[in-house]
C-alpha cells in the first residue's frame, strides 16, 4: 500500500492524487483501503516516517563507526546519496510533499527534520572538532548546503542516465567531504 501510494503521489503529486488512485494502484476497492488507513494524509505521514527512520539509521550507523570523523561523514554521505538515488520517488515525496501534513503530524515532521539536521550537524561538528575541517567552517551553513545538494537529487537524477547510482553517490560523498574539510568562503 505504501509503495503504491509512493508511485501515485510521485506521478500525480500529493495534492492531485486521490485515495481512489491509490486503491486502483493496489488493486482493491477504495473502501477496503480505509481498513488500513484513516486518510490520504495518513499515507503521506507513513511515507515520511518510514523515510525519516531510514535517514536516522544511516546517521546512527555512520556515527557509530570506529573511524575518524571525516570517514564517518564520508560514509553517511555515500550511503545517504545512494539511498536517495535508489529511492528517488520516495525521496521526491519526502522533500517536496511534507508541507501537506497538518496538525500533530506536521509538528512531528518538523521535529524529525530538526533532529535529522542536528544529527548531521553533529557529524560535521565532529570533523571540525578533530581539526580535519577548516577552522572557519560554519557547521550550520555546511549542514544546509549538504541537505540542499542531497534534496536536489530528485530534480535531476534519471535511472537511465549515463552514470550508475554508485558512481554518483561516490562523487557526492567526495564533494560533501571536500566542502567540509576545505571550507574557505
Describe the structure.
The protein is mainly α. The protein folds into two domains: 1-37, Homeodomain-like (Arc Repressor Mutant, subunit A); 48-181, Tetracycline Repressor, domain 2. It has helices at residues 2-12, 19-26, 30-33, 40-63, 69-86, 88-96, 103-129, 139-151, 153-156, 165-181. Helix 4 packs antiparallel against helix 5 (69-86), helix 5 (69-86) runs antiparallel to helix 7 (103-129) and helix 5 (69-86) runs antiparallel to helix 10. The N and C termini lie far apart (46 Å).
Q: What key phrases describe this protein's structure?
A:
185 residues, mainly alpha, Arc Repressor Mutant, subunit A, 10 helices
SSE succession: HHHHHHHHHH
Kindly state the mean pLDDT as a whole number? 92
Strand content: under 5%
Total domain modules = 2
Based on helices, strands and strand pairing, what is the structural class? mainly alpha
| Rg | 18 Å
**CATH class descriptor name of the largest domain:** Mainly Alpha
- Return the CATH topology of the largest domain: Tetracycline Repressor, domain 2
CATH second-level architecture of the largest domain: Orthogonal Bundle
Short description:
With about 180 residues, the chain is mainly alpha-helical. It is built from ten helices and no strands.
Write the layout of secondary structure elements.
Blueprint: H1 2-12, H2 19-26, H3 30-33, H4 40-63, H5 69-86, H6 88-96, H7 103-129, H8 139-151, H9 153-156, H10 165-181
